[in-house]
Design brief:
The protein is mainly alpha-helical. Among the domains are: 177 residues, MetI-like (MetI-like fold, Orthogonal Bundle); 43 residues, no CATH class. 65% of the residues lie in helices and 7% in strands. The protein contains twelve helices and seven strands. A three-stranded antiparallel sheet has the order 1-2-3. Keywords: Amino-acid transport, Membrane, Transmembrane, Transmembrane helix, Transport. InterPro entries: ArtM/GltK/GlnP/TcyL/YhdX-like, MetI-like, MetI-like_sf. Its main location: membrane. Pfam families: BPD_transp_1 (PF00528).
Length: 350
């Protein structure tokens, strides 16, 4: 008998036709959904689409690192809201991490007073809604003295009921980009340069330092009835950051405590048997194992912190969701605004 071998085209078709069928089916469902949405909007006299992003927004964002005016289009206002959200995340995540690790180590302390004090701090913070904590911090910060009698907890740091005034660096971005480029170049060329790679990166950084313009420091000062100079985040920004930092630091503290206790006792005893010092046991045995255990729940807390930043609308801070809600209210294009919000959440989840 003659054996008939299947054609490679038939094998490829059998392998890929289920995926192609699912793709075509989902595309057809999406097309039907879009046609239904367009017909519904047309029946109600609504012109859908994302063309509104290029129209003047008509509202002002009170605080943003990205300067935006009411005459700017909607997409610039949304970008300013995104910058506000990223600013909150970049400030709150490191602070929550440091505070959470400190509370977690205190919770593990052999001193009963330190351990019980940390437990008394952590338990109420975990069992209180974060929105209520934001209101509490906002009310407390509003009771601070006015700008003329601002507190000075640190040199050139002023705290009042208008917010926090910090020294500002102007012209730092080119240096940061140059340093990042030098580190990346040294990492890519580490096999060719060998031990000279760090020195090459340092030389590139020094060259950029010599060629780039200088960095200026703007210090806040009391002048007249207010403050001038520096970076002056609002009281809403301060309340949001403090509330998120304190709330999520309580969860990170329990993550640190659980991760350290998850280290097997045998590994610790093995490190001690190798004549390692307590610091050596902590560095080479406990820390690597605990970090591996704590990383997934810690990443979840970072994502939850960024998501909880949407509660800023309750205290008047204009982050991304607040700006999108304002755009939906003005244009009536709820579907397009929700799509933008969903895209934002999808990027966070990734």
């Amino acid at each position: 008998m003659i054996a008939l071998h299947p054609s490679p085209w038939n094998a490829a078709l059998r392998r890929w036709w289920p995926a192609a069928a699912w793709t075509l089916g989902l595309a057809a469902l999406a097309a039907l959904l879009l046609l239904h949405i367009e017909a519904t909007q047309a029946a109600r006299g609504i012109r859908g689409g994302f063309g509104f992003l290029f129209q003047p927004a008509g509202f002002r964002i009170s605080e943003s690192l990205l300067p935006v005016t009411p005459d700017d289009p909607y997409w610039m206002s949304i970008a300013a809201g995104l910058v506000n959200t990223l600013t909150v995340a970049l400030v709150a995540v490191p602070l929550a991490t440091l505070l959470g690790v400190g509370l977690g180590l205190l919770r593990l302390s052999s001193q009963p007073l330190a351990s019980r004090t940390a437990a008394l701090v952590i338990a109420p913070l975990r069992n209180t809604p974060v929105l209520l904590q934001l209101f509490v911090w906002y009310g407390l910060l509003l009771r601070l003295p006015d700008a003329r009698q601002a507190w000075t907890p640190l040199p050139s740091v002023l705290l009042s009921n208008r917010g926090l005034a910090l020294p500002a660096l102007h012209g730092w971005l080119p240096y940061a980009l140059a340093a990042a480029g030098a580190v990346l170049l040294g990492w890519r060329l580490r096999h060719r340069l060998g031990r000279a790679a760090p020195w090459a990166a340092l030389a590139a950084t020094a060259l950029a330092w010599a060629l780039l313009p200088g960095v200026t420091i703007d210090l806040p000062v009391k002048r007249g009835l207010g403050l001038q100079g520096g970076w002056q985040p609002s009281i809403e920004f301060a309340a949001l950051v403090i509330g998120l930092v304190v709330f999520h630091a309580a969860y990170i503290a329990d993550i640190v405590r659980a991760a350290v206790r998850a280290v097997p006792v045998g590994l610790v005893e093995a490190g001690q048997a190798m004549a390692l010092t307590p610091w050596g046991v902590l560095r080479h045995v406990v820390a690597p194992y605990a970090a591996r255990v704590a990383l997934p729940p810690y990443a979840n807390q970072c994502l939850a912190l960024v998501k909880n930043s949407t509660l800023a609308i309750a205290i008047g801070y204009q982050e991304l969701m607040a700006v999108i809600n304002t755009a939906i209210t003005q244009t009536g294009l709820a579907l397009e605004g929700i799509c933008a919000a969903r895209c934002r959440r999808f990027r966070r989840a990734r």
